[in-house]
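Forwarding the complex inputs:
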Amino acid sequence: MLRIMQADLYRFFQGKLPYVTAAVITLFSAMMVFVFQTAISTVNVSTEEDPILGMEVINGAEAVSMAFGAMNLIMWVVLAVGAIISMALFDSGTIKNEIATGMGRIQLYLSRLAVTSGLTVLFMAFFLAVVVVFGIIVGGLGDWTGDLVLDALQVFATQALFAVGFCSICTFLAFTLRREGAAIWVYIGVSFAPVILVSLLSLAWPDIAGFIAHYELASLMDLFAEHGALLTSFEFVRGLLVGLAYIAVPAVAGILLFKRADIK
Amino acid sequence: MKVLETRGLTKIYGGAAAVDNVSLTIEKGDIYGLIGQNGAGKTTFMRMVTSLAHPDSGEIELFGKADDAGLQAARKRMGSVIEHPALYPNLTAKQNLEYYRIQRGIPNKGAVQQSLEFVGLTNTGKKKFKDFSMGMKQRLALALTLMSKPDFIILDEPINGLDPIGIVEIRELIKSLSNSGVTILLSSHILTELSQIATKYAFIHDGRLVKNLTHAQLQEECKRALSLSVDDVAKTAALLETNLGITDYKQVSATELRVYELLDKVPEITHLLTSEGIRVSAAHEVGDSLEDYYQKIIGGAQ
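Prediction (whole assembly, two chains):
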């Protein structure tokens, strides 16, 4: 399995995509930091009203929470990049070369899930680091405390867990539909339909929508990024378990279907 | 030694059998040609052997292994190009092979270069796979199968889409692989092309195996001959040898002799026989061209 992952990483870094992605993330981070710097210097908002716009100044330490606020946005971009690993197998037909030479289907599936997840989390970490660097450039280091670092690590870990959940859904679709175009469209539908549904429900039944938000992946990601510290232990553990279920259920279903599938 | 044996292999798509109860055996060193029209079931058969498709019934035994775990391990000794060469379009030839070298855990980094040299693709530089001609793609796919040093190679329509030079190149590559001890199963719908390399043949039609024969048997079946229906076969043979020096002949039945030489001397032959008192009831040329034979087999199956 490690060899499959190693080969996929070799292939991934042979192309321009990782460098283009890194450049896009860097550009987005720079714009975000400088736009917010301009906004907080012109808008008078307290931190109670908006924790980000209420900042007095952006610096390295303050940039951490800003990065988490935009993490789910970046996750969509990098997930699409990571997903190309699995999509290309079926688009180019190269999956045949692997199965026909006796590679286990479970190994093939899990290694692609691991690579997609690894790349997604890697780029999310890169985004966090770049935003912090720009924050330092704009306003200096800021007030770095042990608690800040621990909180940041905890939030990042939960964000990574939920992102891997999305990777698992994405891998499931790639290996089940085995057509790049179909997988992309279904993935967009699967990813955005619940978000839209929760938003619509919240207009009519705020309580039900709030309840669903604890079980819907994108909402969970937002919840843990922005209000993680306010969650009760029960809500926190439940969120993690839901995140793990989003990883495990598509993975098990995907493996079972892929094992039985005829490859064209 | 048996490399591949299938017993009653069947695959059903939409209620119709794409492969219907196919049993065949491939021995070590064979260049086994699977012949049939498009849609006859050749590719489906190969896909089942390579585990890309699951049989609905029947058994596959590869290198003596028939259970799932054994088959998976045995497939590591196999290389294949099924349907069309599948490699990453945005990678070069070298990058594609390096990818698979890493994936397959081949420690020798020189394996990539050696494989490219074998198929004559060392000078493609930064040209990407998607920009290769069909012949180059076929050769690179072959290089990939060779990199793992397989004992058994499956090639599905390896000359499809190739120009005449490309066909010759692939043919020579297959011959040299066979000479190095690799067993080969290849499919084609062109018998004349296959007949230049294969040592054994299986004709497949509508998913069924309709004929199985060796190269020598095929040659025999397709050999042009003068069929003589006579009342005394022994005397006829003696006369032909003595008077015309004919030695290449075969007694087919008690009244029929087939002569494989001097086919342009039919009047002389019949004159000799009748003048020596042999009663010749029929004398005509028999034997098919490869294409006629193919059509006869397929037609007979319909």
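Residues 2-260 of chain A form one domain.
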